[in-house]
Structure formats: structure tokens, C-alpha cells
Amino acid sequence: MKRIVLSLSLAIAIIFAGSAYAQTVDQKSKETKTATQTQVKTEAQKADPAQLQQQKAQQNPKNKPLNPQEKATKAVERIGQKVKDLTPDQVKKLTELHVKSYTQMDKDKLAFKDDKVKTQEAMKAESKKLNDGIKGILTPEQVKAYTAANEKQKTDSNAAKKADKKPVPATETAPVKEEKK
After folding, report:
1. How many domains is the chain partitioned into structurally?
2. Of all residues in the chain, what percent carry a pLDDT higher than 70?
3. I want to staple 138 with a disulfide (CB 3.0 to 4.6 A). Which of 65, 81, 142, 167 is the partner?
4. b/e map of 47-73 (b: 16 or more CB within 10 Å)?
5. CB-based contact 69:106 (threshold 8 Å)
6. What is the widest separation between alpha-carbon atoms in the chain?
7. Which residues lie below 8 Å from residue 85, measured CB to CB, with a gap of 6+?
8. Between 76 and 38, residue with greater pLDDT
9. Using CA atoms, how far apart are residues 21 and 10, in angstroms rounded to an integer?
10. Same domain, 86 and 44
């Protein structure tokens, strides 16, 4: 009887010891994995943005960086969808305008890559210049359609952002009991 009790006790002790060892090994594995991921992220942050963009493009071909001509072509296509009746001359002028603008934006990104505020200011200025140029090429009716489509896109985007925000749950506090003296 003592043998059975001792062997059962020993078996239970071995099971608990094995379980504790497995948890320790699993915890160390997680710590090592987290440290490695942190190191990779830190190295990625130190890397050149152009290199990061190339790495992303290699990992996922959909993220392939576009050159200014490709960006311009896509932008003019989007304008054509908003306005509907662009003439071939307008398409040519819009494409040239966009190529020039996107080339300047790329130069600004490189010139101010260490200063986020200056980069944003340069992008805003170039975007305003681009938008004014677009309105100068389009007819008054097209400008109305273009502006209306952009406003609708902004409101839709803002509504989607608001929908994505999750409401912060109200925290319940325990009622405070007043001490009687």
C-alpha cells in the first residue's frame, strides 16, 4: 500500500515538475522571439526609407513603388472617373502636371526626410499647387464635378474613420461608503 501511495506521489510530482519546466521553456521562447522582433523593428527604423519601400515591394508585389509617370497615369484615370468627359488635350496636360508634381514631391521627401514637419509642409504646398493646376485645366463644369467628388470622398472617408473608432467603455466605480462616526 505504501508503495502504491509513494509511486502515485512520485508520478504526480513528476507531472507537476514537467509542467512547470514546459511553462518555463515556453516563457523563455516567447521572450527570445519578442526580443528578436524588437531588434528587427529597431534595425528597420534605422534603415533608409527607400530601402524599406523596396523590401516591402519585394515581399508583396502589390506594394511596388510607382514612379511619377505611373502615379500620374493613375491620378488622371481617377480624375477621368470623377469628371467623365476629359478631352485628349486635357488628359495630356493633366498627366504632365501630375508627373511634374509627383517628381517634386519625391525630391521634397528626400530633401526633408529627417524633418517630418518640413516634409508635410512641402507636400501640402505641392498638393495645393497641383490642385490649382488641375482646376486651371478643367472647364468650370468639370471643376464643379471634380470638387463635388472630392468633397464626397472626404466626407465618406471621415465617416469611415469615425465608424472604425471603438467607443471607450465606461468604467464602473464601486460606490464609496461613508464612514459613520
Report:
1. 2
2. 60
3. 142
4. eeeeeeeeeeeeeeeeeeeeebeebbb
5. no
6. 101
7. 142
8. 76
9. 16
10. no
152 falls within a domain: yes
Residues 75 and 151 in one domain: yes
**DSSP character string of 154-176:** HHHHHHHHHHHSPPPPPPP-PPP
Does residue 166 fall inside a structural domain?
Answer: no
pLDDT at position 89, please?
A: 93
Contact 106, 116 (CB under 8 A): no
Residue 175, in any domain of the structure:
no
Q: With a cut of 80, say whether residue 44 has pLDDT above it.
A: no
51 and 75 housed in the same domain: no
Of the candidate ranges 13-17, 34-38, 51-55, the one whose mean pLDDT is the lowest: 34-38
**Residue 80 in domain:** yes
C-alpha cell at 141: 463644369
What pLDDT digit, counting tens, does each position of 129-170 carry?
999 999 999 999 999 998 998 888 888 877 777 777 655 555
Average pLDDT value over all residues in the chain: 76
User: Are 53 and 111 found together in one domain?
Assistant: no
* pLDDT score at 129: 93
- Residue 37 structural domain: 8-58
